Amino acid sequence: MLAKKTSKNQITLPKRVLKGLPETDYFDIKIHGDEIILKPVKITPTGSTLKDVRKKINSLGLSEKDIEKAVRWARKGQS
């Protein structure tokens, strides 16, 4: 597929490309050599991610001690 850059440095992505990403409005953009890489990004309100993490922890039945133990274990290898 071909996309043309406008005089305002904008590129329109073809419908065919976006069909597989119907809920995507934002992209993370990286340059790799002479390639432009677009990765879909989901924007979430501040705090909602923490709420989801706490919900997951509760659903797994993990306690505060379990979390502390996991953090200590993970930090061991970072010395």
Question: What is the strand and helix layout of this fold?
Answer:
Layout: H1 15-18, E1 26-32, E2 35-41, H2 48-60, H3 64-76
Antiparallel strand pairs: 1-2
Poorly predicted sequence stretches spanning 5 or more consecutive residues: none
Q: Main sheet: which strands, in order across?
A: 1-2
The number of helical segments is 3
- Secondary structure class reads alpha+beta
Tally the beta strands. Answer: 2
Q: Give the overall average pLDDT.
A: 89
Rg measurement, Å = 20 Å
Distance between the termini: 49 Å
Helix-strand pattern, N to C? HEEHH
Secondary structure: helix percent: 25-40%
Largest sheet: 2 strands, antiparallel
* Silhouette: elongated
Strand portion = 15-25%
Describe this structure as you would to a colleague:
- The protein has 79 residues and is of the alpha+beta class.
- It has helices spanning 15-18, 48-60, 64-76; strands at 26-32, 35-41.
- A two-stranded antiparallel ribbon has the order 1-2.
- Strand 1 (26-32) and strand 2 (35-41) form a beta hairpin.
- The model has no long low-confidence stretch (mean pLDDT 89).
Keywords for this entry:
79 residues, alpha+beta, two-stranded antiparallel ribbon
Characterize this entry briefly:
The protein has 79 residues and is an alpha+beta fold. The chain has helices at residues 15-18, 48-60, 64-76; strands at residues 26-32, 35-41.
